[in-house]
Amino acid sequence: MLSAEHALAEADAMLALGRLEGGLAMAAPATLRLLALRLLRDMLITALRQEGHGFTDQRFHAWFAGVATLSDEPARTARPPRALCEAILTELTHSSWNALAQAATRFQAALLAPSDDTGNRLAAETAYQDAGAVIAAAHDLLSRLAPSSHPLAASAQLHAAAGDHVLFAPSERAVEPMAIWPDAVAGKRLTVERLALPCPRWALELLWGAQWRKSGLLSHALPFPGLIRLDVLRANTATDFAMLEESPAILATTLRDAAQTLSASLSEADRLAHRLAECQIGQRRSSRAPALLELLAGFGPLRSGQLEGLLGVSRLGLRTMLGTLDTAGLLTRTTLSGVHLYATDLSARGAYEAQDDLASSTFSTSALGEYDAAMAKIDALLTKSGVTADDSDREA
Predict the structure, then answer these.
(1) Residues 294-336: pLDDT tens digits?
(2) CB-neighbour burial class of residue 257 (10 A; exposed 0-12, middle 13-18, buried 19+)
(3) Rounded CA gap, 200 and 48, in Å?
(4) Is the peptide bond before 200 cis (omega within 30 degrees of 0)?
(5) Alpha-carbon gap, residue 61 to 56, rounded angstroms
(6) Judgement on whether residues 75 and 132 belong to the same structural domain of the protein
(7) If DSSP codes are grouped into helix, strand and coil, which group holds residue 101?
(8) How many angstroms separate the first and last alpha carbons of the chain?
(9) Which ranges constitute the DSSP H helices of the chain?
(10) Are 112 and 306 in contact (CB under 8 A)?
């Protein structure tokens, strides 16, 4: 029989997961695109930190843009960061959630991070294959789980399987005696404690949403960062029976927290989508401007070289868009090593909105109607001549 605390934890977890699914089912396409971009970034950051890399979010974006190393002191036991991100992006290109698959495909070329092993292509390829092997092992583990329509039962089954897996079970610090030359002859030894290797639970969290989508619990195959608890994995081999008894409640609380975090990301994506729609920019000045803002709002700071590839625009066309958005007060810029990283600033009322108010107070309805009709005729002429409005913007 469930304790009152355990029953409450389970109810909270189910409620949080239900709210997440309800939000996903009702979300508009723009909201889902922004959510996919945010989850793509969050999954990369989560995997890197679980591997033992230490960095801030700002440092991640600088590293992703190729203007800084990820950490001042690289982690000795962590998998190489660029190879890890490449493997995750490759995996997500096959996601059943189209918005996430498209985002991952586009950001493969936007990964400008420094090479893990400068000048050593074989080492870099080996690191990439190693990260890919971890993901393949996660696929294999999940394929062996019995289907379950109950989220908490499925989570418990996942933790039990991972705790028994040679790769995903948490390792312990190892104490190893080592001979010291030349005193080894005299039998003198030094005891060395080797650090425990990081548990690559990120690979399971990366794929878990697809498992729940197959079970009909989620509309989309979301990554689930934060779902795997190391203490619960260790409990499978623990002799502390109190810990074993607490595991179900811990799993319920963890699921609740993970679902609430995803719901918060969904709510933020919806807020950003509405804010971007309110800006009402880029109608003829640059039709790609809203897409540019969406990339920056969803993923975070990017440099111009990344944006050119993501948007498929020329350097001149991008410069025009950035200037337009900067004038509107919708961009911020940070300079690192002579490279500008651009981010959105949607907190203030944009200049284009103020211009719209000015236009509505200065011109009559008939005048605005005549203006729109004239612009429509110009668009028609451009179409007949084979030139689009976007082309004319870039040529200007």
Answers:
(1) 999 999 999 999 999 999 999 999 999 999 899 889 999 999 9
(2) middle
(3) 10
(4) no
(5) 9
(6) yes
(7) helix
(8) 73
(9) 4-26, 29-50, 57-64, 81-92, 98-110, 121-143, 151-163, 202-214, 230-235, 241-279, 289-299, 304-311, 315-327, 351-362, 365-384, 389-395
(10) yes
Domain count, the chain: 2
Is the same domain home to 163 and 54?
yes
Q: Give the residue numbers spanning the domain of 359.
A: 280-395
Query: Which is more confident, 361 or 133?
Result: 133
For the segment 91-132, what is each residue's pLDDT rounded down to a tens digit?
Answer: 999 999 999 999 999 999 999 999 887 667 788 889 999 999
DSSP-assigned letters across all residues of 60-98? HHHHHTTSS-S-SS--SSSPPHHHHHHHHHHHHTT-SSH
**How confident is the model over 33-61, as a mean pLDDT?**
97
42 has a pLDDT exceeding 90: yes
Judge whether 248 lies within some domain: no
Q: pLDDT digit string (tens) for 252-268?
A: 999 999 999 999 999 99
Quote the mean pLDDT of the chain.
83
pLDDT band at 246 (very low <50, low <70, confident <90, very high): confident
Give residue 59's identity as a one-letter amino acid code: R
State the pairing for strand pair 189-194/174-179. antiparallel
Gap between the Cα atoms of 351 and 296, Å rounded: 18
CATH of the domain at 379: 1.10.10.10
358 pLDDT band (50/70/90 cuts)?
very low
* Identity of residue 381: L
Q: Please state the length of the chain.
A: 396
Distance (Å, whole) CA 345 – CA 363? 30
Contact 117, 183 (CB under 8 A): no
192 near 176, Cβ under 8 Å?
yes
CA trace torsion 45, 344, 34, 46 (10° rounding): 10
Q: Which phi and psi angles does 356 have, rounded to 5°?
A: -65, -40
